[in-house]
Amino acid sequence: MPAPQDENGFTILLLGQEAVSDPRICSALAGLPWPLQLVESESDLRIALRTAPAGCVVAHVEDPRAGLRLHADLRAISGDWLLIMLTPRTGIQAAVSALKFGAHDLIEMPIVERVLRERVASAMRSLENPQ
Amino acid sequence: MSETGGIVFVVDDDEAVRDSLSLLLESASLQSQCFASADEFAEHYQGGMSGCLLLDIRMPGKSGLELRDWLDQQGAQLPIIFITGHGDVPMAVDAMKRGAIDFIQKPFSDDELLQRVQQALESEAGDRADRAEADRVRANFETLTPREREVMQQVVAGRVNKVIALDMDISQRTVEIHRARVMHKMGVRSVADLVRLASFLDK
To answer: Domain extents for chain A?
Structure first.
């Protein structure tokens, strides 16, 4: 199914079975003024990325370092996607590595809905108004 | 001084940390200057400083993050490595998102710290060289006449002399003369080099 888009084509893709089945995460993102698409697997993500030109991928990753492969995949498809990692277990150095190697943001789980909403909105606004 | 020509500025309120960092950097032939507070460094700061900043996050008075914001307002180009003894993931993420090049927890290994400092110095030296190149390109571009700039734009866009002549309603010979002057003034011999330099003008 093609990804829904706003007038600029920006979309939020929520990736990972644990994330899409978490009602708090879904409700936090659904309240934002950009279309939200739930994507359970990375193969579904590749399909979604082909139909939406830009936006944020909010991905549940067990280890931020593992999420770097996802970031490389995103860069290979398009440079216009920002990756925000939601991770249940991480240390400082793993988080720093993730950000050094290109993740836009990293949020520890369990998430606080307000924090998630603000960080994703900030990322989307940075895409809409690049400096 | 390091091969990159930069100085490592250490800002930490702990004298023992400053002393040990200074010795460590000296052992690696890196020049350093130490400051006991963010305000002390801010007083010393001058635009155009080259090197990198080893900056403690939590200090009495202005914090490391506040100093980073202040440096940003000054247009400083120094890469910042934050160091902290009481860090957590949100703090590290915040520091990195605010433009830090790295974030290291105390206690750190000497090798790890030196490696990251070297990376920061090399990155800053590379950026400095790029800025100098961009300044040179812009200065050369300023010497072009409006007509020469127009020809350069068309050459960079991949157009051949014949097409440029038609488009600008001038003779092919005139285009050739303008083109030769552009190449001379910009200091290049090939169109590929001209295209590369033109990319600096967009930055």
So the answer is: 10-66+86-93+106-128
